[in-house]
């Protein structure tokens, strides 16, 4: 498999992403980028202390991030399967905000397949529009590629019409070559506009410009070979508007404008939204609001 898809030029990747951090985006282009990034956020709470009230507050912020109507809703709220029904109650049925649920024994993926599929089935039954699954990293690292792919197919079929996001957990794959190989393994059995995703957000290393670049180049190469457009979600560690804009530069320069939409690119984040709103306010008024101006509304989650 590795010979078939080719190795990653790690030095080239690092040189390329270093250039993204030097791009200067100003005024109207910056404001456009900040609002676009806002529309791509999967607003996330994945804590053991999550409650229905906490999820309801998250949903309210997702629907109305700011009192300025020109600022879009976020793309989705992301919660544990047990919280899906509470999110659905809070959002209602006629809403632009989707409900994503982590599943398949998140974050480890270490449970029997029947248990993982039952979790997916329950989340979709309770109203999840999207399922974020984790691959079996142990099987991948042991070279059991067919097993990994078969499990992705089983989850995809259990999802029904729900969008599937396949989490690679890049920190545990350890090398760029492994990340590229796992990306292709997943993409070959995904539907158009299903996602590959960097991380669970529960390990020490999450989304970086480097591993994001490896994955979006894999998406580009797969699209050129097959015509199938796969979406991308970096998750974990993206906390500032400046970082988000750098990731969007990477997408524009590697995949083009067709991927600059929340149907093909998302940010998995819990704290990013507040900084995006703060930077939007700065671009509009010329002055920074105190951080608590935005964070107070988020304290409940």
Structure description:
The longest helix has 18 residues. Strand 2, helix 5 and strand 3 form a beta-alpha-beta unit. The C terminus is likely disordered. This protein has 301 residues and is of the alpha/beta class. Helix 3 crosses helix 12. The chain is globular. It has one domain: TIM Barrel. 49% of the residues lie in helices and 11% in strands.
Brief descriptors of the model:
301 residues, alpha/beta, TIM Barrel, 8-stranded parallel beta sheet, 14 helices, 8 strands, disordered C terminus
Lay out the secondary structure.
Layout: H1 2-5, H2 10-20, H3 27-39, E1 41-44, H4 52-63, E2 76-79, H5 84-91, E3 98-102, H6 113-125, E4 130-134, H7 137-141, H8 145-159, E5 163-167, H9 170-173, H10 176-187, E6 195-197, H11 209-226, E7 231-233, H12 241-254, E8 267-269, H13 272-285, H14 292-295
Parallel strand pairs: 1-2, 1-8, 2-3, 3-4, 4-5, 5-6, 6-7
Helix pairs in contact: 2-11, 3-12, 3-13, 4-5, 6-8, 10-11, 11-12
């Amino acid at each position: 498999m590795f010979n078939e898809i080719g190795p990653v030029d790690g030095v080239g990747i690092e040189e390329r992403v270093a250039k993204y951090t030097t791009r200067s985006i100003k005024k109207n282009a910056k404001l456009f980028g900040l609002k676009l990034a806002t529309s791509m956020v999967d607003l996330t709470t994945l804590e053991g202390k999550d409650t229905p009230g906490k999820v309801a507050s998250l949903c309210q912020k997702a629907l109305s991030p700011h009192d300025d109507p020109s600022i879009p809703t976020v793309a989705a709220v992301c919660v544990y399967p047990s919280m899906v029904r509470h999110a659905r109650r809070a959002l209602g049925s006629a809403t632009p905000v989707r409900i994503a649920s982590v599943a398949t024994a998140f974050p480890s993926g270490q449970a029997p397949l029947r248990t993982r599929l039952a979790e997916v089935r329950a989340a979709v039954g309770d109203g999840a529009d999207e399922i974020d699954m984790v691959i079996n990293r142990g099987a991948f690292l042991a070279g059991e590629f067919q097993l990994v792919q078969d499990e992705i197919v089983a989850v995809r079929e259990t999802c029904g019409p729900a969008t599937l996001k396949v989490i690679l957990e890049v920190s545990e794959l350890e090398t760029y070559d492994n990340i590229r190989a796992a990306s292709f393994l997943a993409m070959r059995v995904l539907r158009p506009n299903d996602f590959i995703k960097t991380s669970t957000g529960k390990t020490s290393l999450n989304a970086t410009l480097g591993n994001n670049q490896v994955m979006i180049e894999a998406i580009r190469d797969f699209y050129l070979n097959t015509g199938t457009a796969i979406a991308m979600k970096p998750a974990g560690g993206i906390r500032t508007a400046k970082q988000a804009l750098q990731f969007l530069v990477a997408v524009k320069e590697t995949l083009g404008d067709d991927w600059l939409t929340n149907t093909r690119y998302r940010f998995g984040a819990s704290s990013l939204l507040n900084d995006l709103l703060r930077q939007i306010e700065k671009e509009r008024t010329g002055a920074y609001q105190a951080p608590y101006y935005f964070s107070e509304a988020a304290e409940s989650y």
